[in-house]
TrEMBL record:
The lineage of its organism: Bacteria, Bacillati, Actinomycetota, Actinomycetes, Micrococcales. The keyword Signal applies. This is META domain-containing protein. It comes from the Bacteria. Keywords: Signal. The keyword Signal applies.
Amino acid sequence: MKISRHPLRGAATRFAIPLLAVPLLAGCGGTPAGPSSATPPRADCTTFTPDAPCGSFASVGGTTGGKDLTWAAKGAVVVKLESVSGQRMLSVRTPCNPLSGPADVTDGVLTVKELASGAMGCAGENSAQEKWVTDLLHKPVTLKYDAGKLTWSNGEDSLVFAPQS
């Protein structure tokens, strides 16, 4: 059995597909929604405590329920506090995902509002360590800087950091 082709069917397909793409591409070259001279947000380093240096801190230890967190001693958590367009922002690198959110430091107590997490997804110990840090930050954290170490604590849980070089 011989299959015959319609002489215009191939031509119609060749012209229809590019024509369908024209409306999709029409919005690509337009003018931006806002002014093109928008200033990007400015980020300035902010200290956790008045006597702590400005910059990133890497974990050198921690405890939970009176037991050492051996994973924290290896620099597994890195934290930084910045002022972005006048709003303090905390950024945290955990063994799994990065965490960040608007933060307030009042009378030596760090409070993080709306903590956001990356969406990488981890299993096992890295996931558990990220959850532990997240749980720590869901409560107010007392800050102390002494002998070159920054300590975060809230009840039975604590993390100790050293300035990152």
